[in-house]
Design a protein that fits this description.
Largest sheet: 6 strands, antiparallel, barrel
Structural class: mainly beta
CATH architecture: Beta Barrel
Number of helices: 3
Shape: globular
CATH class: Mainly Beta
Helix content: 10-25%
């Protein structure tokens, strides 16, 4: 079934998946083979890439509202930006736990969700509708089917069939209906917030 999905995606998007991968980076944070983790970053300007704050490392600007920051980078090509469409097939690029770059074909399953988490315990509950619990932080975004997406995908980009960047992966979780999802920020929200 996965092979059929990948072949179908190739037919739908042609060679755009090759060009979108040029905006993805795998980054090692820490000392190799000791205390290190890999994370992802997505090129958004000729000299800046976007990733999550929880990935750590050197940064140019951090968002106050979002778990996102801009880092210096001239490695990748700059994609066009777009908004996700419900049930749209997307390509999600990220970095596996061993540092290998990975690509997953998935689809947008919700475009109107909130991720709610407390300031002390960062466990996140992904819900439909606004966060109502007192003292909880929240962010707004969209969800894709989680299959294959792991923690190393934080900061990785989701692209539509035209190679346009829709958003970046922030975290994985379970929504209120019990679906395993990956939660993403809208790229246009991040562009407005971080001014790129």
């Amino acid at each position: 079934m996965k092979l059929l999905t990948i072949l179908l995606m190739f037919v739908l998007i042609g060679c755009t998946s090759v060009s979108t991968n040029k905006s993805h980076h795998s980054i090692l944070n820490g000392v190799p083979l000791l205390l290190s983790t890999y994370y992802s970053a997505t090129q958004v300007t000729p000299d800046l890439a976007l990733t999550t704050k929880h990935s750590g490392g050197e940064f140019v600007r951090k968002s106050i509202r979002y778990d996102a920051m801009l880092i210096p980078s001239t490695k990748g090509t700059v994609p066009k930006f777009a908004n996700p469409v419900l049930n749209e097939i997307v390509l999600v690029y990220g970095t596996g736990m061993g540092g290998e770059e990975s690509l997953y074909v998935t689809k947008v399953i919700d475009i109107d969700i909130w991720a709610c988490g407390g300031p002390i315990i960062p466990k996140v509950h992904i819900i439909k509708g606004a966060c109502t619990e007192m003292g909880k932080g929240y962010t707004y975004g969209f969800a894709v089917d989680r299959e294959g997406i792991s923690s190393g995908f934080s900061g990785g980009g989701a692209y539509n069939k035209d190679g346009e960047l829709l958003g970046i992966v922030v975290q994985t979780g379970v929504d209120t209906s019990g679906r395993d999802i990956a939660f993403l920020y809208f790229i246009n929200d991040l562009r407005n917030d971080l001014n790129f």
